[in-house]
Amino acid sequence: QELRPKSLDIRQEELGDMVEKEMASTSEAIEDAVRRIEEMMSQARNESSGVKLEVNERILNSCTDLMKAIRLLVMTSTNLQKEIVESGRGAATTQEFYAKNSRWTEGLISASKAVGWGATQLVESADRVVLHMGKYEELIVCSHEIAASTAQLVAASKVKAEKSSRNLSRLQECSRNVNEMAANVVASTKSGQEQIEEKDTMDFSGMSLIKLKKEEMETQVKVLELEKRLEGERVRLGELRKQHYALAGAYDATEDGEAKPAPAPRRGILKKPPLAQKP
């Protein structure tokens, strides 16, 4: 007992209550995330249009699908935990079972916290992206974090579950669905980022006359630089072709009376050069 790490400064009888509270807190965080995404969707439709609206809707829809998959995962995980406790506690109470398996219980609490935190971070990142105050890369990182925390929750639940448990197979299926939805968030984010960047590059509607003139001059400079570089590469290509034709012609021009170059002598019949004689 003295050698066991003091990872949680709580009494063992409180451990079971903490599991239930943490799972309930995670469920509430996910429900709140879904509501916030719906609000962001409504705000995006009012404040944006065209390509930006299309990108925002696609990203927020993929985030909503991910939240729904996480919600189902947490519900299934809760059912599996109840099944594990009921089949393993025997005559002991639920609190005594959690206290006896405190290390496993702490793993469940940690995994549940990670899932709830990942969902909250994803929504906050999506909010910043929709408001054009955040980075698309944040959404991608949050999606990867959610996939990792989901794997942690499944692994923690799988430790004490029966292999034939239906809830375990459902949980694994939910985990695969979460991974798929997280991949969809990454894909929609990357495609949206490319679409927005391409549009912003060619959008000159908000520029003043002086700004337009400056951009025009800078673009002309780039065009001249590229043309000069292109001309240099063409000259180099011409010289390479000239040398190639010269070498090919030297070997193939026997019809004009020119002899082919003599083959290189074999190494075995090379003569030793004469030694220098003393005066």
Q: SSE order, as H and E?
A: HHHHHHH
* Biggest sheet statistics: none
Helix content: over 70%
Overall pLDDT metric: 79
| Envelope shape | elongated
How far apart lie the N and C ends?
Answer: 98 Å
- What's the assembly state of these chains? single chain
Secondary structure category = mainly alpha
Radius of gyration, in angstroms, nearest whole number: 34 Å
Poorly predicted regions:
264-270
The CATH architecture of one domain comes to Up-down Bundle
Record field, number of beta strands: 0
Strand fraction: under 5%
Tally of DSSP helical segments: 7
According to CATH, the homologous superfamily of one domain is I/LWEQ domain
CATH class of one domain: Mainly Alpha
CATH topology-level name of one domain: I/LWEQ domain
Task: Explain what the structure shows.
This protein is mainly alpha-helical and 279 residues long. The chain contains seven helices and no strands. It has a domain of 184 residues: I/LWEQ domain (Up-down Bundle), CATH 1.20.1410.10. Helix content is 76%, strand content 0%. Helix 2 packs parallel to helix 5 and helix 2 runs antiparallel to helix 6. The longest helix has 44 residues. It starts with 14 loop residues before the first helix and ends in a 27-residue tail after the last helix. About 3% of the residues have low confidence. Keywords: Coiled coil, Cytoplasm.
